[in-house]
Amino acid sequence: MSKPRVIALSGNIVSPLGLTARENFLAVVEGRSGVAPHRETFGIPEPFAASLFDRKAVFSEAASQGVSGYNLFETILILSIRDAVQRAGIDPASSRVAFVISSIKGNVEALSEEEERVPVSVSADRVAAFFGQPNPPLVVSNACISGLTALIHARRMLLCGQCDQVVVAGAEVQSRFIVSGFQSLKALSPEPCKPFDAARKGLNLGEAAATMILSRTDAVAAGQWELVDGATRNDANHISGPSRTGEGSYNALRYVLPACTVEELAFVNVHGTSTPYNDEMESIALNRAGLSQVPVNALKGVFGHTMGAAGILESLVSMQAVDAGVVPGTMGFEELGVSCPVNVSRENRPTDKRAFIKLLSGFGGCNAAMLFRKGGAR
Predict the structure, then answer these.
(1) Same topology for domains 5-217 and 227-374, yes or no?
(2) Distance CA 368, CA 360 (A)
(3) Smallest Cα–Cα separation from 103: which of 88, 119, 86, 81?
(4) CATH for the stretch 5-217
(5) Which are the contacts of 285, defined by CB distance < 8 A and separation ≥ 6?
(6) Domain boundaries, given as residue ranges, for the chain
(7) What is the C-alpha separation between 299 and 348, in angstroms, rounded?
(8) Calpha distance 342→54 (Å, rounded)
(9) Which residues are CB-neighbours of 357 under 8 A, at least 6 positions away?
């Protein structure tokens, strides 16, 4: 009897660059970015660069689709989930469907307005109720690896038979609270970010929602994407600084690598925040894992750091890239600025490989990796 496996039925991305996964992927391969300079945004005088929604446009689009009465965080989640659910052809109101929602801050901007809808759990309940889902949604909030952690947990739920499908959705909206927090750490760049580059100055924040519908199967058909394996590892180095030896990231990679060969990998889609220590740590982890020659790319220059949505969004873009036979370029990268050799993809380049690894890291020393493989002949 074959061992059960987990596949992606569909996915969707809602960002300032588009309302579908396809639109967002085209922005990546065409070299378009949502990141723009901001001054006085959220009442913050210091300039910063970020990819932010046009609030009026989002609510107008939502109203045209019959979605109203929700805050921005809930609205983009609903728009992202609804498209993915329709594409997957599942019943989101089924008791055999589970909802997993990932976010770091949720509707934290409501703190200043004394609203009750601040906890992510409250918004998750409202989103699940919109789709008639009878089961309480699971909320994952695990720093910047939240989206990938949500996918890893959803995969485990399916493998142990808790449900038949899982709607995994992540979202983040930015606010004065979040931007000021990152500025206090001197982590934000006033210019578009430059992952792994010698001249990198820090990260850009981003807003987005992304959804992936997962299902259990006994066999992976040609063209289907399998979530082969995933792991989270914590090195507990520092509350806001990564391990200088890439310990957690390396151990997460070491867990998923036995399920493939280096020759199978089209690329590793890294966290690539453009901060001095994160990019350096990832280069060390990749080198220790024997992946120095595998193409590497980062998407923060296109979408900014979308936090709780990043793991899902960047995995979906990576799937589409492999489908199209392309290794996406890394926007902003020019000259390698890390100590270990890393094969950073400066421009789009062709590939005929059918697998990739998604890598993330976050505050508190948390790290995650997941291996994805496309079914069919290798």
Answers:
(1) yes
(2) 5
(3) 119
(4) 3.40.47.10
(5) 246, 249, 250, 253, 359
(6) 5-217, 227-374
(7) 12
(8) 36
(9) 253, 256, 257, 265, 268, 269, 369, 370, 371, 372
Total residue count of the chain as it appears in this document: 378
Q: The tokens 């609030």 sit on which residue?
A: 55
Q: How many helices (H) and strands (E) does the chain have?
A: 10, 16
Contacts of 179 (CB under 8 A, 6+ apart): 41, 42, 44, 48, 50, 188, 205
Whose tokens are 């496996």? That residue is 5
Residues 275 and 299: their CA atoms lie apart, in Å, by: 14
- Report the CATH superfamily, name and number, of domain 227-374: Thiolase/Chalcone synthase (3.40.47.10)
pLDDT (tens place) for every residue of the chain, 378 residues total? 578 999 999 999 999 999 999 999 999 999 999 999 998 898 898 999 999 999 999 999 999 999 999 999 999 999 999 999 999 999 999 999 999 999 998 877 766 665 556 688 999 999 999 999 999 999 999 999 999 999 999 999 999 999 999 999 999 999 998 999 899 888 899 999 999 999 999 999 999 999 999 999 999 999 999 999 999 999 987 777 788 899 999 999 999 999 999 999 999 999 999 999 999 999 999 999 999 999 999 999 999 999 999 999 999 999 999 999 999 999 999 999 999 999 999 999 999 999 999 999 998 899 999 999 999 755
Structural Rg of the chain based on CA atoms? 19
Question: Residue 11 is encoded by which pair of tokens?
Answer: 């996915």
Beta strands in 200-272 (DSSP E): 205-206, 208-217, 225-234, 265-269
Question: Alpha-carbon distance 378 to 353, whole Å?
Answer: 8
**What amino acid occupies position 185?**
L
Q: Helices marked H in 102-217 — which ranges? A: 120-130, 146-159, 176-184
Question: In sequence order, which residues have a C-beta less than 8 Å from that of residue 284 and are 6 or more positions away?
Answer: 244, 245, 246, 250, 339, 340
- Among 269, 299, 270, 283, which residue's Cα sits nearest to residue 337? 283
Question: What span, in angstroms and rounded, lies between the C-alpha atoms of 283 and 292?
Answer: 8
- Residue type present at position 3: K
